[in-house]
Amino acid sequence: MTSCSILDAVGNTPVIELKRVSAVNGVSVFAKAEYFNPSGSVKDRAARAMLLHGISTGQLKKGKTILDSTSGNTGIAYAMFGAALGYKVELFMPSNASAERKKIIKAYGAKVVETDPLEGSDGAYRAVIERAAGDPEKFFFPNQYDNFENVRAHYETTGVELYKQCKPTHFVAGTGTSGTFMGTSKRLKEYDPSIHITLMQPNSPFHGLEGMKHMGATIKPKIFDESVADSRVEIGTEDAYKTARRLAAEEGIFAGVSSGANVFAALKLAETLPKGSRVATILCDNGYRYMTEPLWRDI
Q1: Number of C-beta neighbours around residue 227 at 10 A
Q2: Label partner for 15 (CA 20 to 30 A): which of 98, 163, 185, 250?
Q3: pLDDT band at 34 (very low <50, low <70, confident <90, very high)
Q4: pLDDT of 101-155, one tens digit each?
Q5: Residues 97, 72: contact at Cβ < 8 Å?
Q6: pTM of the predicted protein model
Q7: What are the catalytic residues?
Q8: Can you tell me whether residue 44 is helix, strand or coil?
Q9: Cβ-contact 16, 253 below 8 angstroms
Q10: Is 43-140 in CATH node 3.40.50.1820?
């Protein structure tokens, strides 16, 4: 019997063809099911890469505490890997992040510092920078918004897997830190420069797409380069909710709100494409961490 650690269980997630929610004849829509990662989201890839890079470079040493801001999923991944590797974890996140996410983080033994909900992820980010600067010897601060290991993780894994699995002609995804979008897009373009990249964003600075950023109204991650996108689309919160519910009821896929947004964008794009096109997107996480949120609470 071959054994592995929790870090070895990251990646190689399946791609699911959406056959019922997609009504466009001759155009295939594929979704990479990142909730199959061990903590349940795409963020396992980046968190693993940033922590291992910190260890290999000597920045993350025994006795240091892993510190970062998060809207939830990266924090859960940090907490899981911290528990497995023997590091304390302290995470700053808006107090209105879903209760499930905060409870999961605490279950792994990590500390949650809640910040002003009105300031969103930007407020948590500003607060954690101040905390890290105040005691740099105590903390390892990966800074997921500015850490290019975040991009590299998806360039080396997600993009490679996605191309081999479905050879898309089009890729569409939203951005939080933008690591998934940037790394996957860059790798796909290297395989085939004709692959069309669409950037999905919320249609308002005030939205319910937890984990997604409206780049024009927020602190822009240093790893984000909007020139990678060939086109852009903006998605409303209600369309994302409806699509996530459709995925559960029609495809048997129980995913979160950002997944609903990605799939809605992919479906709208598919309606404009010629037969033979293959659209791929990302299912960022599962729906279980949103049970007390409007996505599932109000059905």
Answers
A1: 5
A2: 98
A3: very high
A4: 999 999 999 999 999 998 888 999 999 999 999 999 999 999 999 999 999 999 9
A5: yes
A6: 0.95
A7: 43, 258
A8: helix
A9: yes
A10: no
